[in-house]
Amino acid sequence: MTSLPNSITEFLTQPYELTQEQILFYQKFRYIKLKEVLNLETLLFFNEAITDQVNIMNQEDKALEERTTYGKAFLQLFNLWIENDIVKSLVFSKRIAKIASDLMEVDGVRLYHDQALFKEGGGGITPWHADQYYWPLETDKTVTAWIPLQATPLEMGPLEFSAGSHTIVEGRELEIGDESEELIQKKLRVTDFKHVIEPFDVGEISFHSGWVFHRAGANVTNQMRKVMTVIYMDKDMKLKNPENKNQIHDWNTWCPGASIGEIINSPINPVLYEY
Questions:
Q1: Can you name the residues that pair with 160 across neighbouring β-strands?
Q2: Is residue 271, in this structure, part of any structural domain at all?
Q3: Cross-strand bridge partners of residue 202
Q4: Of 216, 234, 228, nearest to 140 (Cα)?
Q5: Integer angstrom CA distances of residue 188 from 26, 183, 185, 197, 245
Q6: InterPro entries, from UniProt (predicted)?
Q7: Helix (H) or strand (E) holding 6
Q8: pLDDT per residue over 122-171, tens digit each?
Q9: How many domains is the chain built from?
Q10: What is the DSSP letter of 12?
Q11: Cβ atoms within 10 A of the Cβ of 220, count?
Q12: Which domain, by its residues, includes 62?
């Protein structure tokens, strides 16, 4: 296996200093896009490493046209860090974890899980949804780092946000799919929340909270849109009583052995950064 170059190891420990304005922006809208979080060397290196691991783990054998809307949205692989030490070095990066901690204004963060989201050329939309519908977590102190592994123009289907929509309760009960796309879109259309649709530059990363509504367009290019994500939670996050079958699944899968009402401190939920 390729070893991690010293220059990248050092880069991933260097802090990315946020301004107070950026933190306030995130607190208000519950999303933010930050430029130059990763440099070109780091991005190219992990593009190759994560692509190789996705190719090893991917078991999708249906043609795009035979899949559901959710299946057409992306190839989705979880917890690559357990399978690959190189990928682990990105997932465990203190540089990115500190950003997550600073944005949420908490004393540290632990890992919920990682996932690769590779939207194939010709892949469909990612419907409107809120991630935390799936998570048996007691508070909203959660944030996902969405890390494109290449520049991502609008044609490739970058992540879109409804800024400030974490305040809406209606729609939180919907699984991602055709129904969530239709009903949440209808709800957002009659609100004043700004729908943010922008390309991502090389090295630009977005962060969004668990309850903010977001989606992605189709990939109308013939290239794979490669994205790695890391989901962080407050290091003191407690497990709540699951409210749906998906939260029961997540408890068993991503928080194994955790007890309701106690801090989620399983072997696969390590603290990635703390002050």
A1: 197, 215
A2: no
A3: none
A4: 234
A5: 19, 9, 5, 14, 26
A6: Phytyl_CoA_dOase-like (IPR008775)
A7: helix 6-11
A8: 999 999 999 999 999 999 999 999 999 999 999 999 999 999 999 998 88
A9: 1
A10: T
A11: 12
A12: 23-254
DSSP string, 226-251: EEEEEEEEETT-BBPPP-SHHHHHHH
Query: Residue 18 falls within a domain, yes or no?
Result: no
Q: CB atoms < 10 A from the CB of 6, how many?
A: 8
Mean pLDDT rounded to a whole number for the chain: 96
What pLDDT is stored for residue 262 in this prediction? 98
Neighbours of 116 (CB within 10 A): 24
Task: Check residue 7 and give its pLDDT.
Answer: 97
The phi, psi pair for 145, rounded to 5°, reads -90, 120
14: in domain? no
H helices present in 115-221, as ranges: 178-189
The domain that contains 61 carries what CATH number? Answer: 2.60.120.620
Whole-angstrom Cα distance, residue 220 to residue 117? 16
**Gap between the Cα atoms of 97 and 141, Å rounded:** 13
Positive or negative, the CA dihedral 260, 111, 165, 158 is: negative
pTM listed for this prediction: 0.96
Residue owning tokens 């209606």: 170
> What is the enclosing helix (H) or strand (E) of 91?
helix 85-91
Q: What distances in angstroms separate CA 133 from CA 70, 169, 176, 251, one per listed residue? A: 16, 11, 9, 13
Residue 216 lies in a domain: yes
- The residue behind tokens 């990066």 is 93
